[in-house]
Amino acid sequence: MAASSAADLSQIVKAYDVRGVVPDQWGESLAELFGSAFVQVTGADAIVVGHDMRPSSPGLSGAFARGAAARGADVTMIGLCSTDQLYSASGRLDLPGAMFTASHNPARYNGIKLCRAGATPVGQDTGLTEIRELVESWIASGGPAPVAAPGAVTERETLDDYASHLLSLVDLAAIRPLKVVVDAGNGMGGHTVPKVFAALPVELVPMYFELDGTFPNHEANPLDPKNLVDLQKRVREEGADIGLAFDGDADRCFVVDERGEGVSPSAVTALVAARELARNGGGVVIHNLITSWSVPEVVREHGGTPVRTRVGHSFIKEEMARSGAIFGGEHSAHYYFRDFWNADTGMLAALHVLAALGTHEGPLSDLVERYDRYAASGEINSTVEDQAGRMAAVREAFAARDGVTFDTLDGLTVSTADWWFNLRPSNTESLLRLNVEARDETTMSALRDEVLGLVRNG
Question: CA 61 to CA 425: how far, in whole Å?
Fold first, then answer.
């Protein structure tokens, strides 16, 4: 058995996946139990399993497959893939899926992202808690009893189908030639980008496409600005039209304009929303509560209905399914599409940006200006032990001001006609996360500094 036990499984089972240090927190024997439990809880008679390029991923995914087969399920192994490629396989094959990745986390981590057939998410309230409890019971009892008829494990290639489906959803036939720099961060973008981009009229400048789960160049986490520096420099050196950066499992994509300046994920959300609304003749668009005011404004301007949700993968997907939304976007550069089984795919969002830029006469910075209307702080983390106490102090500080409204959908959102901020606790760390937006940079900066002072100096 790996180092994990029934007592500490809760530390690696989070909101919608399993993630921890290998082998200190978990390893192949535990992965095998998770495979068995996944099959038993979902009742699946067949599943699909993929993995990223981390050194521990092939062993963990193989162990999971053995556990699943031992409970009677047939297992289709698709090998190296991005997370959205696994979702595509789950959707096309109509099978529950397991993706072995720790996304943007450092090399010593690994994990599993789980979904039911059709890429429907598995979260704490939709099976993950039952899976954890079943694994805990098996650890205590010595393991599950064998079944009479184990399943078979076979292999299947799915990259071609994944690329074909994405390219069927965006019209790129008439775009002008573009020079595109892509930083794969030694992650799975190095696997998917060459296949998807092969048919496009673009000059591709690849960076760090070698699959290497030790991340020798920089962490595959483009949400951290320091990991975009190489891409920004290369875009300027090459005189490129656009830069794209993918995270480790390539389900998120960040965009850099021709000047090497980052494009806000909110602006990308608004741009893609406008295109999807035009393609579908209207519809519902989901956005979380810390995306820019620009997003619901653009959605309404293009005949759509914006719906605001809490921050997080599981909340977005749940609302996508409930409302029949055509698209959803988050500040973290997760983009969800109805025509991609309500799952998130940074690659499809990137194709939409390329399509928009390729039919626009000016540069990307000019194109996104119409979607990036306000001054924003980005997410700022503060280490705080008494999270509830600090949030109460912030609320008290703003309570007596005219025109202020409060919202507790997710943490604390404080708004006026000219600005808003959201302060919410991390689910896994002693952090408060702050996002601020205002109509001008001076107001935003002053508000940001005031709230940080209350949070950090209380």
Answer: 32
- Sheet with 242-246: list strands edge to edge: 202-207, 178-183, 242-246, 253-256, 262-263
Considering only the C-alpha atoms of the chain, give the largest distance between any 2 of them, rounded to a whole number of Å: 70
Helix axis angle for 159-168 and 83-93, nearest 10°, is 90
- Reported as half-sphere exposure (CB side, CA atoms, 13 A), residue 376 has a value of 20
252-271 per-position pLDDT tens digit: 999 999 999 999 999 999 99
Q: What is the DSSP string of 65-91?
A: HHHHHHTT-EEEEEEE--HHHHHHHHH
Structure tokens at 452: 């940080």
pLDDT digits (tens, 9 = 90+) for 427-443: 777 899 999 999 999 99
Can you tell me the distance from the alpha carbon of 327 to that of 306, in angstroms, rounded to the nearest whole number? 10
Structure tokens at 83: 């997370």
Q: Which residue has the tokens 């409204």?
A: 405
Pairing of strands 74-80, 335-337: unpaired
Yes or no: say if 195 and 163 are a contact pair by the CB < 8 Å rule.
yes
Of 192, 243, 186, 229, residue with least CA distance to 209: 186
Q: What is the DSSP string of 246-284?
A: E-TTS--EEEE-TTSPEEPHHHHHHHHHHHHHHHHTSEE
Active-site annotation holds for 103: yes
| CA-closest candidate to residue 112, choices 190, 25, 189 | 25
- Give the active site residue among 56, 57, 90, 103: 103
Helix (H, G, I), strand (E, B) or coil at 120: strand
Cα dihedral value 86, 88, 92, 93, nearest 10 = 10
**What residue has token string 């296949």?**
195
Structure tokens at 393: 């102090």
Find all residues with CB under 8 Å of 29, minimum gap 6, and list them: 1, 2, 63
How far is it, in rounded angstroms, from Cα 63 to Cα 41?
A: 18
Cα 132 from Cα 112, distance rounded (Å): 13
Q: How many other CB atoms are there within 10 angstroms of residue 72's CB atom?
A: 18
Whole-model pTM? 0.93
- Are 110 and 117 in contact by the 8 Å Cβ rule? The answer is no
pLDDT at 8: 66
In angstroms, what CA-CA distances link 427 with 15, 130, 379?
Answer: 9, 20, 15
Give the 3-state secondary structure of residue 454.
helix
Tokens encoding 412: 């604390």
